[in-house]
Amino acid sequence: MLIVAERINASRKAVRAALDVQDAAAIQKEALAQAAAGAHYIDVNGGTFPGRAAELLCWLVDVVQAATDRPLCLDSPDPAALAAARAGPGGTAG
Length: 94
Description:
Blueprint: E1 4-9, H1 13-20, H2 24-36, E2 41-45, H3 53-67, E3 72-74, H4 79-87
Parallel strand pairs: 1-2, 2-3
């Protein structure tokens, strides 16, 4: 069984507030707590900010990867946001 942590989701008040001001420490604290609790993957979702999905998903990827070596599960209904986040730092797909 694989455990995918789902708490870094902009639909949660604390995460939305952290995303709004790009509070990396708050996001990293959550990612580390989930890893310590046994998560195999960390889900990242910044999707409740219309027009900023790609920017915030890229930021989340960078922030979470700086805190933990757990693989990420990219979560967004926006294909462009997923492509940008997969492209790596800066979020620009080739």
